[in-house]
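Colleagues,

Please find the record for the two-part complex below.
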Amino acid sequence: MLGLSGGVDSSVVAALLHKAIGDQLTCVFVDNGLLRKNEGDMVMDMFAKNMGVKVIRSDSEELFLGKLKGVSDPEAKRKIIGNTFIDVFDEESNKLQGVNFLAQGTIYPDVIESAAAKTGKAHVIKSHHNVGGLPEDMKMELVEPLRELFKDEVRKIGLELGLPYDMVYRHPFPGPGLGVRILGEVKKEYADVLREADAIFIEELHNADWYHKTSQAFAVFIPQKSVGVVGDARRYEWVIAIRAVETVDFMTARWAHLPYELLEKVSNRIINEIEHVSRVTYDISSKPPATIEWE
Amino acid sequence: MTDIHAQRILILDFGSQYTQLIARRVREIGVFSEIRAWDMDEAEIREYNPSGIILAGGPESVHEANSPRAPQAVFELGVPVLGICYGMQTMSEQLGGKVEGSDVREFGYAQIAVEGSSALLKDIKDHVDAETGKSLLDVWMSHGDKVTAMPEGFELMASTPSCPIAGMYHAEKNFFGVQFHPEVTHTLQGKRLLDHFVLDICGCEALWTPAKIIEDQIEKV
């Protein structure tokens, strides 16, 4: 059994295992309602339709959004999303018969960092995030086919296994998804607006050949209305921020100096095409002192 | 089926921020490499049976109390050993050479003159010194201490005006020490140096390729 997130590591594990054991592999894909536009369908198309992998899709938007109701604190949101994911995963796995192995997309840097944490030789410890830890009563053996590989080796394997370049070289996407790109309380209407804005931004980045020049790029929903004027009428709608960074080394990032024409096109499209957006602003904060994500 | 793990380079980590880079360079050459802490158990090292060992750098000084040393087994296994920066210093210290502290830190770009005729630096040069006819290499240094006397049996392999022993080698035992960092991109031909070590000196074949890795994992699964 494998938890499929749509990210590179779990996708490569899925492709590799499918090649090795075919339908002895069952993937569980949890759609938490906080994914990007059409992402759920794209994952299903790629793996289920295209590659013939057995994928169970759990449409859990209502569950997740229900648990997030009234919660504004970023850390609280992350915890709730993480815990709810485990519950859903656990439930799905209980429905399956004869699952003896759990596959994970652990990669070599995770191994090095956890080993260093054990011996105390590292100064900075990044905890190995395996979806927040597995329930103790899951009696399964762990299979980690990528644990000897560095990230760039994982990507090369991904290509070799036939995964598309665009998927393998996609920007990283946070576990809590749009949950941390909607400031404060998460509501479905906010997520829907954000999905559209993000899709436009990414599309225009690709069109201008800028997507792969940035390390991460995304839209942020700011739950604050501002005034606009359209066709002589007053509008009062939400604000969207767009964010794009270039990584100089892995510890600092600079806000991407996107061309003005690109910014203009993006802003124009977002405000014109999305009814509930009045304004677009560009985040010009580098890391440090800011962080890449807003929450 | 070929065992793509059979030939492997063991990298002992003394705390350098570049240690992962070494592992990745070796993998890029097409040979499996693994990083372990410097105090790896001697029995484990023998069991690991590496084709070659690289002692990575670190922020320590051999003079400090309790500073890390490579397990003695490293020098007794009969496999080639490459010591980088602190790795070279501890190699020197452990085999009877001398390491001294220095007020002058060499940090950043340096140009070394190739000395002797080591297999490691064979046919590698960035420039030729017009006066002396020696080969020169552009490298990246980051150190304070330096080796001031080589252990017995070692010959000079590289030097700079401020660091007379910037590289040393023992031809028979295939031990090599470099004060500079071949694993960073600022050392222009660092990769060729590592090619020499991994492929020629350690005699490894380039089996660690995406296709073979996939084959190997599928078999395992």
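DSSP finds nine helices and nine strands in chain A.

Comments are welcome before we finalize the supplementary table.
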